[in-house]
Amino acid sequence: MHVRGAFNHLLRPGLRSDFRDDYLSFETEYDQILRTGTMDRAEIEATTLSGLPRQVKLPEGEAYTILDTELADKIVYTDTQFGLGFSVSQMMMEDDLYDRANQSAKWLARSTRLIQEYQTADWLDDAFNGSTFTGFAGEALCSTTHSLLGSSSTWSNNVSGNPQLGILGLQAAFELGETTVDHQNDPIPVRIDTLVVNVAEEWTAIQLTQNADEPFTADRNINASRRKRKLSYTISHYKDQSGKDWFARDTSIHDAHFLFKVSPQFPDWYEDSTRSAFFASRQRFCVYHYDPRGWIGSNAT
Q1: Which end of the chain, N or C, is surrounded by fewer C-beta atoms within 10 Å?
Q2: pLDDT tens by residue, 146-181
Q3: DSSP letters spanning 55-89
């Protein structure tokens, strides 16, 4: 609780009136990384069908080959509730010469934003391990051995050798995207249009996505990545920055979500028994992915 003893500076004249009581925030990043929306039930259920393979020869007079489509096991995702609050005594509010003691509500707004960003960052940091966030078949977002529902084969969306972000790494990511398959092990298009990078890779991301010529070369060859597809990038300031991991994404098909069950709320109340005002924030949301297609990652160090 904010009481007069702990905040005695606010009770004395002569304190500079423009002292820092808030900080600017980065523009929202979680909604640039994940699909955002709402959920109206206590849980989200996800599954998939294997579909049908390519046709087979049908000799004259013979019956059709009849196959059953296979249904994957259902995965259930639930939201998490987050909240925080503070209180201010009535006497503190009465004696505050600068009207600051009860203005910490702006910090509640910042706290609310931060957990949204950090939960999304945790999802990125777990992309190669799958310790917390898993999708189809209980697998991590990025793996070299993703399971297929209708085939005993596997497929990969983890760039071989985990190269750092650069021309060769991006080329490998494009090629890996071109080899993405459906659950029958047949090719599907994955068209990379966005890079998701750490702070240290932003300059490289700018050169790769905005340079008409190939960066890092003396001959100034054509930047093939721009010719193949228009690329943009987004940066995560909140994820672990100790590595050089990066991601390439097809925005049109990726299946990673940030869903609000309860959008941020900011209740406040007054208690006569303690003669104090209380301010709080609360929200419920779910971060998850199911189908890893549309994401390609390199766990570079």
Answers
A1: C
A2: 999 978 899 999 999 999 999 999 999 999 999 999
A3: -----TTPPPP--PPPBPPPEEEE-EEEEEEEEEE
The tens digit of pLDDT for each residue in 192-251 reads 999 999 999 999 999 899 876 666 666 566 555 555 668 999 999 999 999 999 999 999
> What SS3 state is found at 7?
coil
Both structure tokens of 212 = 């008409």
Four-residue CA torsion sign, 201, 206, 209, 215: negative
Q: Which residue has the tokens 């009481």?
A: 3
pTM, whole model, 2 decimals? Answer: 0.85
Can you tell me the distance from the alpha carbon of 178 to that of 197, in angstroms, rounded to the nearest whole number? Answer: 21
Kindly state the tokens that stand for 251.
Answer: 């925005």
Alpha-carbon gap, residue 254 to 33, rounded angstroms = 10
Q: How many CB atoms lie within 10 A of CB 169?
A: 21
